[in-house]
C-alpha cells in the first residue's frame, strides 16, 4: 500500500478512524508493515519455486494466499511471524490500513498460484513460469518499494464501481 495515495486508508494509531467513512469502520485495521514483511517471504518462496523448479514452495505459498484471501492477511503464518518476531523490535508510530485492499491482493496472488500449479501439474512450462513470475514481480514490488499492486487494483475497482 502506498502511503502517498489519498484514497488509501492508511493512518497512524492516534487517528485510526479519522480517514474512514461510516461504512468502512466495521472493517479491521492492520499494521501496514505486516503485508510488506509477508511480501518479502512470498518473494523468497516464489523464487525457490522457480530456482528449484518445484511445486512444493508454490503449494505452500498458495495455501498462505488462500488463508489471506479468506480470513485476511493478519491471519497468515507470515503475519504470525511478523507479530511475534518483527513488530516488537519496531519503533515509532504504527501505520495502519484497511484490511480489504491487502486481502484482495491475497486473492489475486491465489489466482496466480492456482494457474502456476495448473501449469506445473499439466507440464505447461510457459503457464507455470508466467504465472509464478507475475506473482513474484507483484510481491517484489511490495517488498522492495512498498507498492502493493493488488491493493491498487482494489482501489481502482472500488472507485470504478462506486460511480
Average of the residue pLDDT scores: 88
For the report, how would you describe the main beta sheet? 3 strands, antiparallel
Structural class: mainly alpha
Shape: globular
Major beta sheet, strand line-up: 1-3-2
Number of helices: 6
Number of strands: 3
Helix and strand succession? EEHHHEHHH
Assess the beta-strand content as a share of residues. under 5%
How far apart, in Å, are the first and last alpha carbons?
23 Å
Helix content: 55-70%
Total tally of structural domains = 1
Rg (C-alpha, Å): 16 Å
Return residue spans where pLDDT drops below 50 for at least 5 consecutive residues. Answer: 1-22
Give me the secondary-structure topology.
Elements: E1 10-11, E2 29-31, H1 33-52, H2 56-71, H3 77-86, E3 96-98, H4 100-121, H5 125-145, H6 149-161
Antiparallel strand pairs: 1-3, 2-3
Helix pairs in contact: 1-2, 1-3, 1-5, 2-4, 4-5, 4-6
What does this molecule look like?
With 163 residues, the chain is mostly helical. Helix content is 63%, strand content 5%. The protein starts with 9 loop residues before the first strand and ends with a helix. Residues 1-22 have low confidence and may be disordered.
Amino acid at each position: 500500500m502506498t502511503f502517498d495515495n489519498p484514497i488509501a486508508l492508511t493512518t497512524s494509531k492516534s487517528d485510526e478512524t479519522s480517514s474512514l467513512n461510516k461504512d468502512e469502520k466495521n472493517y479491521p485495521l492492520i499494521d501496514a508493515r505486516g503485508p510488506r514483511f509477508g511480501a518479502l517471504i512470498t518473494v523468497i518462496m516464489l523464487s525457490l519455486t522457480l530456482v528449484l523448479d518445484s511445486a512444493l514452495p508454490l503449494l505452500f505459498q498458495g495455501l498462505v494466499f488462500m488463508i489471506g484471501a479468506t480470513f485476511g492477511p493478519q491471519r497468515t503464518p507470515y503475519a504470525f511471524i511478523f507479530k511475534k518476531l518483527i513488530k516488537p523490535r519496531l519503533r515509532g508510530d504504527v501505520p495502519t490500513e484497511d484490511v480489504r485492499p491487502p486481502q484482495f491482493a491475497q486473492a489475486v496472488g491465489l489466482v496466480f498460484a492456482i494457474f502456476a500449479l495448473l501449469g506445473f501439474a499439466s507440464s505447461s512450462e510457459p503457464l507455470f513460469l508466467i504465472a509464478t513470475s507475475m506473482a513474484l514481480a507483484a510481491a517484489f514490488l511490495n517488498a522492495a518499494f512498498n507498492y502493493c499492486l493488488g491493493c491498487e487494483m482494489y482501489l481502482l475497482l472500488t472507485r470504478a464501481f462506486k460511480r
